[in-house]
Write a structure and sequence with these properties.
The protein is of the alpha/beta class and about 90 residues long. It is about 35% helix and about 20% strand. The chain has a 3-stranded parallel β-sheet with strand order 2-1-3, sandwiched between helices. The mean pLDDT is about 95. Bound molecules: flavin mononucleotide.
């Protein structure tokens, strides 16, 4: 079993990452394979509901980290999404 933990923070090794590593430690004690995936800092193109993903199996916009995530997502059994609150 593999769990993909998504770090949705612009900070690669910030608080969101630290929280995910705590979850990762617990998963590893149960012999669960893990990978932390960082979305980096480049803006992600919004979905325009073109539905091409249904045909292609990936996003038609190949200008951000989304398709890199999609490839890894196919091999994952579960996800943990971590996000900082930047509302202020
Ligand atoms: C611009 C900005 C706005 C923030 N707004 C909030 C907020 O509204 N509520 C909150 O609880 N924390 C807020 N925070 C604190 C972050 O959520 C917190 O520092 C978080 O752990 C940062 O995660 P990171 O280190 O992975 O980026 C804000 C931080 C920043 C930089």
């Amino acid at each position: 079993m593999k769990v993909l933990l998504v770090n949705g923070s612009p900070n690669k090794n910030g608080c969101t990452y630290t929280a995910l590593t705590e979850i990762e430690k617990t998963l590893k004690t149960h012999d669960i394979e893990t990978e932390i995936f960082w979305i980096k800092t480049k803006p992600i193109t919004g979905c325009i509901a073109c539905m091409k993903c249904g045909e292609k199996g990936e996003c038609t916009f190949d200008n951000d980290v989304v398709n890199e995530f999609v490839k890894k997502a196919y091999d994952a059994d579960a996800f943990v999404f971590g996000s900082p609150v930047y509302y202020a």
